[in-house]
Amino acid sequence: MQYLFSRALTMAWTGLFAAVAAATDLEVASGPPMTLTGAVQLALQTHPELAGFAFDVQAQQALSRQSQLRPAPELDLLVEDIGGSGARSGIESAQTTLSLSQVIELGGKRDARSAVAAARLDRQRSEQAVRQLDIVAEVARRFIATLAQQSRVLIARESLSLAESTALAVERRVRAAAAPEAESARAQVAVAEARLDLEDAIHNLATRRHSLAAATGAAEADFGEAQGELLLLPAAAVFGDWVARLRASPDFLRFADEQRLRDAEVQLAERQRRADLRATIGVRRYEIGDDVGMVAGIGLPLFASARATPQIDALRAEQGRIEFDRQSAFLKAQDQLFARYQEMEHARHVAGVVRDEVLPQLESALEKTRYAYLRGRYSYLEWADAQQRLLTARVRLIDAAADFHSNRIDIERLAGESLATTGDRP
Q: What is the pTM of this model?
């Protein structure tokens, strides 16, 4: 993704676009141009989903602070021996006890709770990093789609210009009785079709621009043209290097965070085997004689170890599954990586052949066909076919370049690379 930025839109073949100024009528806003870097930065600053993660982290931090608190003391008021019968009727024989109780945690439970909370916070941040990669990759995909559609609009505009100039040439030959009138009709139909194709391309560009704006978190596409070097296809790392990066991507580091969380939860559950003490101290008042006495006690729950065992077994089962989930996810990601890598290299090959071999030949053929038609040696259909083949090849070059960049974006997303962390690359 990092290599598509902030230069004026250029094309590799001579004469496809006269100047970038030709793009001023592409039905775009008059705002500043949009680069891939700018689109990504805008998404990181304004995308509502990323902003929402900050609240998730704040909530988890609050829970982490809560986990460090000791059990709260309890204040109890107990009134006995009231409303009975005989000597215990009324409240004359009542006993009133006011006591303060405190659970004394044993076995390091508070530290274990804090470890679980810290592990959950780490997992939350990992999920945030993964989602950020998803959003950055989606912005890059939509930017490439917009950039490619801008190029298709320019090609459609050139197609209309060619059709109109061809129609004029055909009309002159028809008036000179050097060509049948049917050729003039065909040429006018070609102009109408080219105009419709241009309208379709402009409408599609508006859709692409709005989609790009939505990916950045904006409601409207108020930016100018997208700027980038679509035909710049830089060399990529070998497949083995991408696999190595895949292993260190946030998607798989997240499994390590999950493992640490499960380990911390098991440790906490193990600590629950040891029962906590409950200490109580208070004062008791006897209505008869207005006597006062102290009360104190210690409580110890029974069978704490047996009650903790089922939860420990369940947590250990979940703990054991994580590695198999990681292996399964890695195999799936590696398969996707291989497919995207093959598609990327194939797109690079197609773009190279079209740019270096097909287009020069078609440009030469078009010029020769035009020359021959004007001298009556070729028919209009042969001239129109030469024009269409050239325009189709130019679109194919755009499509191949867009496929290259889209597949590379997918590869970099799988490998965990992001414009937000690695920056620009020429």
A: 0.79
